[in-house]
Amino acid sequence: ADRSILQTIPQKKSLFQALVDGHKEGFYLYPDGKNMNPDLAELMEGSTPNRIKVSQEQFELYSQVESTFQLCKICAENNKDVQIHPCGHLLCRECLKSWQLSKSPTCPFCRQTIWGHEDVEVSPYSSKEGSPTAKDESDEGDLEDVDLVLQQLMLMRQNQGRADPVSSPDLDPVLQTPPVPPRLDLLQQRAPALPLPDYQNLASSSHWIK
């Protein structure tokens, strides 16, 4: 690019993870100023992704729309494995890459600028586990899209219940009343009167003929 140096401090990830992610996304070429990238493989071996446990509330809410919390809501194929910062929304890495390349560097859910992201592992809900941890309770932002879907379903059901086919026959051709037949007396009044035959003239004309 223009070889300008931009420096920022990662807030929710280690520095080596920020360097690796930034290199994959094309933010820079050589972070240490040399003509080669440093090898961070040793640091990556011991790193483990953060684990997010699905709470009972999240499990029940997504079950109402026949889905799961861990499923990516963009592609509906892969599981969520990336958390966007600072908004905290979750999606899969493939969708994040496609979104950043084709659209803009913003969150696809809330359109907030993406400052970074980290790998996460979403653990499915289990009834045997205890109460949700603080990590579960802080992840309420990812429930916004499901809440919107449930609200839309509720409005659709209310609108269907309010629709009364008897009060609005125009919606159903079967319920429409037949057209009113025309009045015969009006048609007779409008018809032009024919001239009556003159019987006196006919009689006189017949006399001359004789």
From TrEMBL:
InterPro entries (UniProt xref): Adaptor_Cbl (IPR024162), Adaptor_Cbl_SH2-like (IPR014742), Cbl_PTB (IPR024159), SH2_dom_sf (IPR036860), Znf_RING (IPR001841), Znf_RING/FYVE/PHD (IPR013083), Znf_RING_CS (IPR017907)
One Pfam short name: zf-C3HC4_3
Function: E3 ubiquitin-protein ligase which accepts ubiquitin from specific E2 ubiquitin-conjugating enzymes, and transfers it to substrates, generally promoting their degradation by the proteasome.
Name of this chain's protein: E3 ubiquitin-protein ligase CBL
Region of interest (Disordered), ranges: 121-142, 159-183
Organism superkingdom: Eukaryota
Keywords, comma-separated and alphabetical: Calcium, Metal-binding, Transferase, Ubl conjugation pathway, Zinc, Zinc-finger
Functional pathway: Protein modification; protein ubiquitination
Record text about domains: The N-terminus is composed of the phosphotyrosine binding (PTB) domain, a short linker region and the RING-type zinc finger. The PTB domain, which is also called TKB (tyrosine kinase binding) domain, is composed of three different subdomains: a four-helix bundle (4H), a calcium-binding EF hand and a divergent SH2 domain.
GO molecular function: calcium ion binding; phosphotyrosine residue binding; SH3 domain binding; ubiquitin protein ligase activity; zinc ion binding
Enzyme nomenclature, EC number: 2.3.2.27
Domain Cbl-PTB: 1-42
Domain RING-type residue range list: 72-111
Organism: Micrurus lemniscatus lemniscatus
One BP term from GO: signal transduction
Reaction(s) this enzyme catalyzes, per UniProt: S-ubiquitinyl-[E2 ubiquitin-conjugating enzyme]-L-cysteine + [acceptor protein]-L-lysine = [E2 ubiquitin-conjugating enzyme]-L-cysteine + N(6)-ubiquitinyl-[acceptor protein]-L-lysine
GO cellular component term, pick one: plasma membrane
